[in-house]
Amino acid sequence: MVQLVEAAQLSKALVQKLENKISRVFVPEVVVVALPAWLGWFIRGAAHQYPRTWIPSGMDEFELALQFGISILVVACPCTLDLATPTAVMVATGEGASQGVLIKGGSALENTQEANSEHPISTAVVEYAKKLNSKYVLGSVPLFV
């Protein structure tokens, strides 16, 4: 049982594979944007093109520029997605196992599609999708699943 839970926690969900593909392109682009931002703030600060009062006490132009560059990396970097998905899968499979429910990994969680969720917003979305299905059924194939 423990080995099954560990295997489920280590498996990659389909959305995580997509995030990895996006990250391969997006992360270098974010770095390419962050470096000129840092350099621009540093050069303008060294040339005294903005008021000294903009720089917090105990800092110099270099540190202020570095804060702007790092801020771009932190806000735009999708690393949080790369950490959030496996963490959510690990927590869900672990919590399920502690309650006697074996979840076979991220793909199994994705296949549930939250259709039986008790969350009010999820319930509202599912109800709306059901109304649309009954209204716009093409033959026997529903538009929304």
UniProtKB/TrEMBL annotation:
Organism of this sequence: Dendrobium catenatum
Identification of the protein by name: Copper-transporting ATPase HMA5
InterPro entries named in the record: ATPase_P-typ_TM_dom_sf
GO terms of molecular function: metal ion binding
Superkingdom of this protein's organism: Eukaryota
Transmembrane segments: none
PANTHER family tied to this protein: COPPER-TRANSPORTING ATPASE HMA4 (PTHR46594:SF2), P-TYPE CATION-TRANSPORTING ATPASE (PTHR46594)
Keyword check for Aminoacyl-tRNA synthetase: no
Signal peptide span: none
Coiled coil (residue ranges): none
Keywords attached to this entry: Metal-binding
